[in-house]
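Everyone, describe these structure tokens:
***
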Amino acid sequence: MKNLISVVGPTGIGKTRLAIDLAKHFNTEIISCDSRQFFAEMKIGTASPSAEELAEAPHHFIGNLSVKEYYSIGQYEEDALQKLNELFKKYNTVILVGGSMMYEKAVIEGLNDLPEANTENQQKLQDIFETEGIEKLQEILKELDPEYYSVVDIHNHRRLLRAIDIIWQTGRKYSELISVSQDSRDFNVIRVGIEAPREELYERINRRVDIMMEKGLLDEAKGLEEFKHLTALNTVGYAELFTYFEGTWSLDFAVEEIKKNSRRYAKRQLTWYRKADDIHYLQVGYSQNDFNNLIEYINRKALQ
């Protein structure tokens, strides 16, 4: 049986490092399921692996698209499974890493065959969005499906439109529809995560945003301003700086908003992962001994 080790955890916790350490130990390759790191122009703001990190182990789905390309989760599921099939011909173990919850789910379980968008619903919701703002969509979704509302990116209006449309079409909660796995996978999934006390995680996130600014996030965002209407850029780290460029916010305030929204995203990730009972956790700043114990755990799970 082939094994897929899926490394999960909130943003800024150190998943990239753990994935590379595991890939080196098992002499294998890494598939990213971080939906923001797919885009080549967004290296700094998505904390994409550095050139040095990429050189330590082969990575797939990092910087492989342009922000101008539309890429759906369904396409990703197809591409990732195809890549996995290729890699499993060479390796018994492959690493999956990323904090995009639905993208990990797409690979390890499969997405449901959800209905196509209903034009009438979409138009109705678009009108609500334009006249009453994103807050109204948030309100509708919160009432219809509080569970999905607690984990979705509530600032991404497309996600809200999609979920409400599906709920209206099916009469069922979106969170229920996506929790039924479509078909089983012919590989064994071993999920491992990194955790930290909430205060420490938030400190790490704040520090990481400062580092991104030092590395040139402002210039990166400036170079992408003409694409700010695209879905790929309707995301933390960029949306806030676009508001600064418009003159609405000061730079300091925009940076504080990036930190706040990153912490909020981490909170949603924690809510999502807390529901899972199959994740084996390491503490942040783990020792070599902790890592060795993790390898023992993985080897045991691989034999089951």
In short: The two ends are 10 Å apart (CA to CA). The first helix runs from residue 15 to 26.
